[in-house]
Every structure is written in C-alpha cells, then in structure tokens.
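Researcher: Go.
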Amino acid sequence: MLMLFILGDVLGAGVYALAGVIAGEVGGAVWVALLVALGFALLTAGSYAELVTKYPHAGASAVFAAKAYRSPLVSFLVGFCMLAAAVTSAAGLSLAFAGDYLSAFVDIPAHIAALVFLVVIALLNARGIKESLSANLVMTTIELSGLLLVVFAAAWFFRTGGADLGRVVEFKAGVNPAIAVLGAALLAFYSFVGFETSANLAEEIRDVRKTYPRALFGALLIAGVVYMAVAVAAAVVMPVEQLATSTAPLLEVVKASGLGVSPQLFAFIALIAVANGALLTMIMASRLAYGMAQQGLLPSALAGVLSTRRTPGMAIAATTLVAIVLTLTGSLATLAQTVVLLLLFVFISTNLAVLVLRRDKATTDHFRVPTWVPVLGVASCLLLMTQQDLETWLRAGALLLTGVVMYGITRAGGVRPLDADDYGIASEVEK
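Model: Structure:
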C-alpha cells in the first residue's frame, strides 16, 4: 500500500504535460533524459531511506535539518522550500489542466481556466478532503492506465508501418548530446519528485525500517520503467517537432496511432491525473503552512481554521492566492523548473544531513546507504542547479525572500520556533 501511495504521488501529471517540452530539449531520445533523472532521484531517495528509517518521525526534511544543523532558520528554509515548491507545482499543474487536454471539451482562455481550476481546488480543500488508500489506488490506476494506453497505442501503430524507431536515438540537432540530455533531465526530474512527501508517513508505517526502503525504491523503479516506455512510444509515433509544440503531447500520440480511442476519453484521463496531482499538492501545501504557523515559523494568522469545517481556511486562501499569482509569471516548463530548483535545496540539505548525522548512533538497526550515495546526491543536485536559467533563480529567490520576511515578522512578534528537541517530544505526544 505504501508503494502504491508513493507511485501515485510520482506518476502522472509531469509526464502527461511535459513529455513534449522534454522532447524539444533533447530530441527523440527522451528516454535517456528520463533515465538520467531517475538515477538522480534514486541517489536522494537513498538518503531519505536512511534518515526515515533512522528517525521515523513526521516532519521529514525539516526535522532532519533541525537535528543535523541545530538552526531554526535553516530548518525553516528547508520547510519553506517544500511549501513554495508545492504551491509552484500547483500553479504549473493548473496551466497543464488549462491546456490542450481541456480544449478537447471546451474552448476557454488558459489563464482564466487556470484561475477557475485553482479556486475550485481551494473550495474542495476547504470543505475537507479525506484521502483513503483505496481512493488513492483508484486515482493511481486511472493515471497508470492512461500511460499504458500510450504504450499500447504505439504498439498498435507499428501495424501501419509508419513507426520510426530511429527517432528514439536521435538527439536535438546543433546541440551537444550531453548538454541536451542534462538540460532535459532538469525537466524530467520534475516527473519523479513527489517521493519525498512519503517521508511524512514514517510514524504510520509498520516495520518502517524494512518496509520503507522497499516501497520507495520499488515505486521509483516502476515509475521509471513506465516513463521510459511512454517516451519511446511517443518518439516512434510522433515527430519531435509536433511533440514539442503541444501542451497535450500524449493525447496527440494516441490520436496519431490510429487505435481508435476517443480523444475525449484520453483527455479525461489526463485531466484526472493533473487535477488529482494539484489537489493533493494543495492539500499538502495548506497543511504544511498551517503546521509551520503552529510551530511559530510563519505568522499565527495562517493557523486559523474554519469554524464549521475545521479546515485551515487562512492557509488554504494564502497558498491559493500565491498559486494564482505564480500562474501569471511563466509557462508550465518554467514553473516546473522553479519547483525542481526549490526541491534541490531541500535535497541538498537531506543528503548533507545523512553525513552530518552519521555521528549520531541509532539505538536500533536501520537502512544505511554507502557514503558515496549522499555525496553523489549532493553533486547531482548541484549539477542540475547549473542548468537553471536566471528567470528561475529570480522566481525562486523571490519566494524564499518572502518566506524570510514572514519568518522575521514572526520572530519579531516574540514567537519562539520549535527546535530539534521539540520535534522529538511532539512526535511522542502524537503517538
């Protein structure tokens, strides 16, 4: 069940919306970029596996940072990067929802559709959403079925004799293949993020020290295989130029295959994948903002709840407003890059925390990765950072500056943030 939870968090929206953008960066060899991104994700996943099994407490990256660095500001920045990444991701997903998949049903300006979409998500969030594992299984099955349908459509397309396997190993003309792959891997990495949120379930997992690593690596490997199969399928069916210009690239693949599947049916599947991803992301973002406000890391106003529904109304309103503003600042690709950049800071912190906390001897056995794994994890994050453009750095910097200002206002009000020991006490009380 844990593996399906992680798989549901990873699969879906990224590859549904970004396959064409990745193809535009690297050419027909999209699977190579996805393979490189999978390798980078597995390195950081190894660090999460060690820390989660060593410190099985809710709070994940922020708790690891608090234990490793003993700095409230560093712990805050790690948590706020997670929050900012979630809100930015929801903004990007709203643009994906408002693209060509939606136009299969209704013609409406993209930014208006994105705004309406985020408002509807906020209303659902405010009403109160309880995700059960059975509901997550249904949504994951729908998302996975759409991706497998793309692979089947490509196999069907071979019957026409029009499939071009040669495109699978073609790189973008005029660009060094290594540079093209690395640039595309930055976008492909967005399709694998989501695994880190599973660390917050540590206290609810039975036999976490054995279960968590198996579920984490199993889910990432399954997602990687499915993604690469979809990438190959898209390349053999559609010319790269057509993939790169579509905001619904997989829908175009299904249409061109001649399989006879209704475009509206596949568009509906894709919209479910995107909407589910956005809803889960905004639920997490609003609860994270609420929790940080309760811990004295953000203004106390964000800890307000609705009197009738008992949901964090102020946090929902604030995160939704920021997401709406972010939709006006860039395309899906640029917002995805901003998400990755923010998470790279979190991943660097987590990888370094593994090395710092090696001196803290655990009283029980736990999963342990070789020292080179977190070292390469840090190196891979720094390498991906070099591929970010100035606009992405400015957007991420503006978000972090906003967070620092809010943190300063909170501290000026005399609120003391929780320290590492508080996290441990809170965990025991919660149990």
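Model: The two ends are 21 Å apart (CA to CA).
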